[in-house]
Amino acid sequence: MAEKEELKKSRKKSPGVCGYPISIFFIVINEFCERFSYYGMRAVLVLYFKYFLRWDDDFATTIYHTFVALCYLTPILGAIIADSWLGKFKTIVYLSIVYTLGQVVLAVSAIHDITDTNRDGTPDNLNLHIALSMVGLLLIALGTGGIKPCVAAFGGDQFDDDQEKQRGTFFSIFYLSINAGSLLSTIITPILRGQECGIYTQQQCYPLAFGVPAALMAVALIVFIVGSGMYNKTAPQGNVMVKFCKCIGFAIKNRFRHRSSQYPKREHWMDWADEKYDKLLIAQVKMVLKVLFLYIPLPMFWALFDQQGSRWTLQATTMDGNFGALTIQPDQMQTVNPILILILVPIMDSIVYPLISKCKLNFTPLRRITVGMFFAALAFVAAGVVQLQIDKTLPKFPSTDEMQVKFINVVDRDVQVQAGEYNFPLKPFSASENYETFTDSFTLTLDSSVSTVSLPKGTRNTITIVQQAGGLMPINFEDITEKPEQGANAIRFFNGFGSSLNVTIGDKEIGYIVPNNMSEYGSVPRGSAKYQIKNQAGVECVIPQELGFGSSYTMLILPTFNFGPNCSDGVHQILDIEPNSFSMAWQIPQYFLLTAGEVVFSVTGLEFSYSQAPSNMKSVLQAGWLLTVAFGNIIVLIVAEAATLEDQWAEYILFAALLILVCIIFAIMAYFYTYIDPAKIEAHFANKEHDEKKKRKSLEMVKKDSFQHQDDDKKSSDSSSDEEEESKQSRM
Asked: Is the domain of 538 the same as that of 610?
């Protein structure tokens, strides 16, 4: 009691506005900037792994989920540091510095000009970029995870005991700031990524996409420090999590020590801690363990949920982002989740739950959580169906034992082509309709000219047929063997003209192309594209083209090409890869189902945990809840690596089936769960402990009285003996 009074005296009254401490506004702004920083960086992270560091889909997914798992493992460390040593304020400041440093290192790692750059734009010293990226992500994981359990609790500390209403409003604003930061960042950072930057080579601007979140994190840190003089800062009071773990550890150790002894059996294994810890603490630990046991199946939900930023984003790169007046980038589809959260939370609270209540249905928290898991499973079934439709639109690329060939006739007459078993005519300045597949070298006959063609396996090729002095000659060029990166379009030019021409593709100058040669690919975004062709005298021809998402074209400059008003007539478009035709809008149903599942699952789960947790161990259950997110991301790593499924749709269905199975197990566990009132249990044990203390005190008083009586009797006896002795001596 004296400690509480002392703590109240130490609290400094923060200036207020409309009954709210000004200090909370610094905390809300800090949270908005920090969430912008985190979600903005995370939105483009998997694309950075794939297209900058050149990792394949599986490895990019593995590293992404490893990082997310670390972000949800480190909150335990942050809670221990804050409660045991530094306090919340210093923990937030110190770990925010680590966080900011990590964001800066990640942004620097994405600067492709810090090492020599290859012709395709990839860094020459890729290992340096990978090392810097990993250091940056480790620092970010430590920072964001470490401050996660501290910021909201620190905001709650700013209110007095009689400000429950204001505190509740603060947490609502705090939650809104999280979603606002997430929403804005997932819109803005993909736009920043889409810009081109660089000194020696121009390419996707990942340094800017990571640099702006780094700047926002620095702003978050500065804003938080500026409010320092207004905060109520409580000293560390000792970590209840440590006490919780020690109590469990002692119970296990004590039970193991007496496993073969004649000690009587105890009702619960935690009762073996009775020799060292009081009954109230043991009862509180039991309540927490009861809820933590229910948490065991929950990571499977997060295993599906966090694939929005990995598998679903990669899925969107093979889809059409044209929404009419709006064009959506693949990583911007993640904005659907926070938008739907802001819509669905009030709808569920004010319409759906009251309607269910009026229908007299007992929709308990655990039943809600079960429904949320079921919705998430349905979302992945929907994702699997979408993937099947996407696969129908994707070209069939060669396997490792095959090579594919397409033929283009650059001669101004019909040419009869016989390639192995394939035989077909080619009209002037046209291409064969499909890529023909071969498993070995083949004989190519062009009219009467015969040659043997041997190509590397696993490649796609274009053979252009040109006129030479000795007749027809085939010239081979290797094509790309996957969809162009990030929904962009791959464009190249073949010069069939009689002299060298300078070509600019989009904003990238390719340089001069000699006759009968092919340029390298240029990456062009969706929309109206313009290509420039110049001769050595500087005369220019501009070729317009409308592009979708993910196509590839060979632009054929004909021998009849001439500079003039109709110069574009001398350039033919040869389609190599069809543009993405399946709309990203088809991802909205799976996002809706997953977000509906999140609203029912996550919000209810937090409320349930709070209601079932002892008053002093709510932070323990919060840490336990965050751990389910971490383990969920670890499950993704295990399943993705162990399953080795060739088809992505099959992996989606596998995850859905696993969650359905877990959902059934959880429903059975929930059926046998008995809801409790922690306050009543704590009051019971507190009263019991109080009665025991009174009893012990009474016994001590009785003992003391008994000792006092014995002492008085002894003194009385001694006094009588002295008197007798004196009487005896006087008689003598």
From this structure: no
